[in-house]
């Protein structure tokens, strides 16, 4: 039995692009594995993690376990639970909406908490994601490619990839949908066709990568 971990960080209850593309990826994996798979999900945009838990868990690391407060024990237990969910999965899907040019606070809190766990900390003997695949599913409202006015303004993707790849050791695939605001923003009307193509390409990539990674973990 294989396990997929899926993290959704969109704050939209309906119409999230990162969630929709992640869904395509998850469905492709599940279909290819013939249902012989467990999917663990966490929706941190709609059910946020407590933003103060990270500092509490981080400082609890300097306190002997038997001397920790109830608050420190709860924060460490939460970090352990999150790290367990990720560590026990063969494949990780990280849905990353792009808000305010950077990593969303919800996603940052999740990474910060997982990083307090010894298996995922910078000092881990072996990167916990070594030999495993992680997918970064990114949705951006605007366009940030080379030659566009906002080129260089995406301050999220490189950081997310850095941690997944270089700290945790995953083999990372980035699947991106851009211009997601074109359909609802009059000033972006001339970009609608491009946005639709972008979205279709993202779903197609998710389908393709889902099948490929399922074959890999089933082998
Ligand atoms: C509060 C907020 C801030 C946003 N900031 C940006 C931004 O800085 N740049 C951008 O291109 N799009 C921005 N967007 C648009 C989102 O990137 C877009 O809606 C994307 O589809 C989000 O992923 P989701 O659909 O999975 O929620 C923002 C959206 C919201 C709600």
TrEMBL record:
FMN binds at residues 10, 16-18. It holds the Pfam family Flavodoxin_2. Residues 3-171 form the Flavodoxin-like fold domain. Its cofactor is FMN. Keywords: Flavoprotein, FMN, NAD, Oxidoreductase. It catalyses: N,N-dimethyl-1,4-phenylenediamine + anthranilate + 2 NAD(+) = 2-(4-dimethylaminophenyl)diazenylbenzoate + 2 NADH + 2 H(+); 2 a quinone + NADH + H(+) = 2 a 1,4-benzosemiquinone + NAD(+). Binds 1 FMN per subunit. It is an enzyme of class 1 (oxidoreductase). Its EC number is 1.6.5.-, 1.7.1.17. Also exhibits azoreductase activity. Catalyzes the reductive cleavage of the azo bond in aromatic azo compounds to the corresponding amines. Quinone reductase that provides resistance to thiol-specific stress caused by electrophilic quinones. Homodimer. Belongs to the azoreductase type 1 family. This is FMN dependent NADH:quinone oxidoreductase. It comes from Gryllotalpicola daejeonensis.
